[in-house]
Amino acid sequence: MTTPEHAWFKSSYSDAGQNCLEAALLPSAIALRDSKHSAGPVLHLSPTAWRPFLAHLAERGATPS
């Protein structure tokens, strides 16, 4: 499922090789997709699940913006 009606954005920490996720803020979820496969699957995280996801990234040194 794609979400073309929402604005997708990449982290400012994305590398030149395009190895990153894109995110879109939806009314009831945060959508994530692979930037190299924008027509591919989309992962939807609830706001409750988003915070632990960000905490996990921070622990691994991958601080998103």
Q: What class do helices, strands and sheet pairing give?
A: alpha+beta
How are helices and strands ordered from N to C? Answer: EEEEH
Task: Give me the oligomer status.
Answer: single chain
* End-to-end distance: 24 Å
- Count of DSSP-assigned helices: 1
Measured by DSSP, the beta-strand proportion falls in 15-25%
Question: Unreliable stretches, pLDDT < 50, 5 or more residues?
Answer: none
Strand order of the largest sheet: 1-2-3-4
Please estimate the helix content.
10-25%
Got a strand count? 4
InterPro entries: DUF397 (IPR007278)
Protein name: DUF397 domain-containing protein
Pfam families: DUF397
Domain DUF397: 7-57
Describe the structure using short key phrases.
DUF397, 1 helix, alpha+beta, DUF397 domain-containing protein, 65 residues, four-stranded antiparallel beta sheet, single chain
What does this protein look like?
By secondary structure, this protein is an alpha+beta fold. The protein has one helix spanning 47-59, and strands spanning 9-10, 21-25, 30-34, 43-45. A four-stranded antiparallel beta sheet has the order 1-2-3-4. The mean pLDDT is 81.
